Amino acid sequence: MKKLLPFLKPYTKESILGPLFKLLEAGLELFIPLVIADIIDIGIATGDKGYLYSHFALMIGLGFLGLICSITAQYFAAKASVMFSGAVRSRLFAHIETLSDKDVDTLGTSTLITRISGDINQIQSAMNLGLRLLLRSPFIVFGAMVMAFTIDVQSALIFAIVIPVLSVIVFFIILTTKSLYKKVQGRLDNVTKAARENLSGVRVIRAFRRESMEKEDFGVLHEELTSLQLFVGKISALLNPLTFIVINCGLLVLIYVGAIRVDSGAITQGQVVALVNYMGQILVELVKLANLIITITKGLASADRVESVLEIKPSLVFNENSEKPANMSAPAAEFENVSFAYNEGGEEALTDISFSADAGGLYGIIGGTGSGKTTVINLLMRAYDAGKGVVRLFGNDIRTYSYADLKKMISVVPQKAVLFKGTVRDNLKVGREDATDEEMIKALKASQSYDFLKEKDMLDTAVDEGGRNFSGGQRQRLSIARALVKNAPVLILDDSFSALDYATDAALRKSLKEMYAGVTAFVVSQRASSILEADKILVLDDGSAVGLGKSEELLKTCDVYKEIYETQFGEEK
User: Fold this and answer.
1) pLDDT digit string (tens) for 206-220?
2) Are 307 and 183 in contact, with CB atoms under 8 Å apart?
3) Distance between CA atoms of 198 and 140, rounded to whole angstroms?
4) In the predicted model, is pLDDT for residue 392 greater than 60?
5) Spatial separation of the C-alpha atoms in residues 242 and 70, rounded to whole Å
């Protein structure tokens, strides 16, 4: 929690005023039993109605002032907690954005979602309650004991025994449940992960009729979470009954001792009522404190989980002070003896890859599933760093570029076409914010998106979340248009023609060559037809380069490419 406290600094005023007004309310509340004692001992005992009415009005006034203080404290506490959690959430999101693909793969998407949502909500609740009750409840408890000693020392000794016993119970529950709540959040991550996988893969699950098996697997994870929550809930549930037992035993002893003290004339009946009221206040505040402790324990566990993400240093470090200029006359990309494994010590996804791509050309990368095509692209756009060898971009080691400069030079169309809710214009401006309508229309024409959009509202055509109102091929073409709008010198098309028919595929490649002739394009594909006209084709098989050259050359020299070519074109015949 220490590393999150600096986020509270801008809201120091609210963090002080909230507890301060709660302490004022608590102070007013502590005076009420004394007023009641005077009403009983003087107003009722003597029959003085004027005294009775005046003190009754005083009690109402104290209650009204306490209400104002309570509302004010709630306002400041809510403002501080909401702004604090918002700042933490923004910082966490920004930090996650700096993590590499490797870091995200290691942590897991589901746990990141849980931490940025559920965990921070838990921290917010703990902060809100803490600012209001963390000082108030102990103040009332010990204040009631002090006030009891001002009334009668002998009777107040009961308070001095009850409060330490209650403290032991409370702290025992805290220490026992904190680690358990961390485990609860961990199992919640597993449930979130399972739900996310089922939602993203619902079509596959239905296609293979795995609904019942997925329900069983989810039921197991849910049962694990539920059983642990029940266990920790049972421990937490002990807090209220144990405190009630101790307090009520204290009340019985207090009433017994108070009766003896009244009979001896040491204290009055009103003072006994005041002592009972103070014991009642302690009971109420300890119940509040018990619930507060449980909430804070959950909040601390969640804070530890958020801090653990913030402490992760990105595995990819960019030299932001670098001003190394790109040599546009040098090869657009070079791989020199590059090897790479996704997990340290694991099997290599790429082994000793070497090739060079001149600027302004069209280059194809082909191979079977799992051959390493996407891995080459990931290294080229520096989603990962090569384990061995060097990747160069326009003559310089790719690791020497700043993040901003690297992203300006590369535009990517990922395998999965992702569109955002809004309009076509909004989605194209993701590629480049200052793109003009003319540039966007040019990109739509080149990507073969113009024809189906002109029947709608063109750039103002609405896009549903994920592009659900477009077909798979239309989403791919719009994703290509977005990449073209960026107007970067290197364009990467990662299996971006898979949902297109052959005619659209051919038309798109032709328009790219005509309208974006100066762009160096890398086309990753499992279709030989998509890369037939490439200046150079890299053929991969099980992470190794088994061929490099034009299509005609590879048909003579590379068995893997020849097999892919003959299989596909044989099917066409």
Assistant:
1) 888 888 888 888 888
2) no
3) 50
4) yes
5) 28
Closest CA to 240 of 177, 288, 190: 288
What percent of the chain is modeled with pLDDT above 90? 4
Q: Which residues contact 336 (CB under 8 A, 6 or more apart)?
A: 354, 389, 390, 391, 392
Helix axes 136-151, 120-133, angle to 10 degrees: 20
- Amino acid occupying residue 462: A
Domain boundaries, the chain: 5-181+236-310, 333-412+490-572
The Cα 409–Cα 405 span in angstroms is 7
Query: Does residue 522 contact residue 491 with C-beta atoms inside 8 Å?
Result: yes
**pLDDT tens, 285-340?**
877 777 787 788 888 888 888 888 888 888 777 777 656 677 777 888 899 999 98
User: Can you tell me the distance from the alpha carbon of 114 to that of 453, in angstroms, rounded to the nearest whole number?
Assistant: 38
Kindly write down the DSSP assignment for every residue of 401-425, as one continuous string: S-HHHHHHHEEEE-SS----SEEHH
Q: E strand or H helix at 391, and its extent?
A: strand 388-393
**What's the token pair of residue 453?**
């959009």
Model confidence at 572: pLDDT above 50:
no
Spatial neighbors of 469 by CB under 8 A, at least 6 apart, are 462, 463
Distance CA 320, CA 403 (A): 7
Task: State the SS3 of 212-235.
Answer: HHHHHHHHHHHHHHHHHHHHHHHH
CA dihedral 63, 68, 69, 74 (to 10 degrees): 120
| Rounded average pLDDT over 2-14 | 84
Which CATH class for the 333-412+490-572 domain? alpha beta
CA distance 529 to 508: 12
Average pLDDT for 435-441: 89
Domain 5-181+236-310 superfamily per CATH:
ABC transporter type 1, transmembrane domain (1.20.1560.10)
